[in-house]
Amino acid sequence: MTDALEPSPDLTRNQALVFGRLTEAEAPLSAYTILDQLRNDGLRAPLQVYRALDKLVEYGLVHRLESLNAFVACNHPAGENSGASHGTVAFAICEECGGVTEFAEQDVVKRLQGWARTEGFHAHSTVIELRGLCENCTTA
Amino acid sequence: MTDALEPSPDLTRNQALVFGRLTEAEAPLSAYTILDQLRNDGLRAPLQVYRALDKLVEYGLVHRLESLNAFVACNHPAGENSGASHGTVAFAICEECGGVTEFAEQDVVKRLQGWARTEGFHAHSTVIELRGLCENCTTA
DNA sequence: GTGTGGAATGTTATGTCATAACATTTGAGA
DNA sequence: TCTCAAATGTTATGACATAACATTCCACAC
Predict the structure, then answer these.
(1) Architecture of the domain defined by B13-139
(2) What is the model's pLDDT at position A84?
């Protein structure tokens, strides 16, 4: 249940391009969507994007949304200066507007850790994703 | 946060074939793996499998593992006779042996529901998946 | 400054997961 | 026996992801 963190060094050109695109986006982007948006910046092949994404996820700057096969820039309370140090987080994904809210419920994490401990299961990552409608889209 | 349940009627031939394969399997199967294993039973195209899976998931007999893009037969405490009535469940997925343990932590669900309520988010499904090593594979 | 090795990059090809579109068959109930 | 909704069969295509290999970049030892 660790999500071990590496320090995040300076980003390379491709990593910076991909991270920039994700930071500007208002909703998750697929690797291929990112690629399309970076053609003018010289990116040509999916692997260039996937490799950058791998590193960004490793650095904790980007999250992969498993139920969407897409990626979002990390949006923490932003306390930690640069090498964001965080554990398990959860996501609420609106299926109407595509918006994603990242949140951390420490009690949820503790409960899951408790289950894992009693079962002898050693988790190295945890996926928590709610699918539904955000407040705005519910009332609309 | 409901995972609304339909009653599960008798299964059609394709549904029964797919469900049977998943029930016998000891680990999650991808749709294409299921297809390969059912060629001799007359299945030929991915859609035949995906359509059966859609219904089985709808009936609550099968779960989709989002972080694996694969499917497992539901393995509940098995209380309810046939039309299994269950809410949100969680999965622990062993990356060594491929085994999946399905469990329900009511406190986890309540906490997530609590978050959703205060945020006005209306969840219709929830994904909780732990990735790591099961007890057997840790000691081995 | 030059050499060297690890990391990142570029490129082609391919593998894996999933659905669109349309024709046909099946079966419960009017 | 008609009819309509559901399920099925089939072909084609779209969407997500990685294998394999050649090349470039750059910090650091010499």
Answers:
(1) Orthogonal Bundle (1.10)
(2) 46
Averaged pLDDT, A14-43: 97
Residues A122, B107: C-beta atoms closer than 8 Å: no
pLDDT value of residue A10: 87
Domain boundaries, chain A: 13-139
Contact B127 A127 (CB under 8 A): yes
Task: Locate the chain A residue with the closest alpha carbon to B133.
Answer: A122
Distance A9 CA to C7 C1' (A): 13
What's residue B7's pLDDT? 58
> Are the CB atoms for B109 and B1 separated by under 8 Å?
yes
Chain D nucleotides near the protein (CB, 7 A): 7-12, 15-20
pLDDT at A33 over 90: yes
Residue A82 confidence (pLDDT) above 80? no
DSSP code at position B134: -
User: Which pTM was predicted?
Assistant: 0.91
**CA–CA gap between residue A46 and residue A34 (Å, rounded):** 9
| Residue B48 near residue B35, CB atoms below 8 Å | yes
Instruction: Supply the pLDDT for residue B76.
Output: 73
Q: Which of residues 29-48 of B touch strand D (CB under 7 A)?
A: 42-48
Q: Which of A2, A88, A122 to mutate to test the interface with B (most CBs of B within 10 A)?
A: A122
Residues B89/B104, Cβ–Cβ less than 8 Å: yes
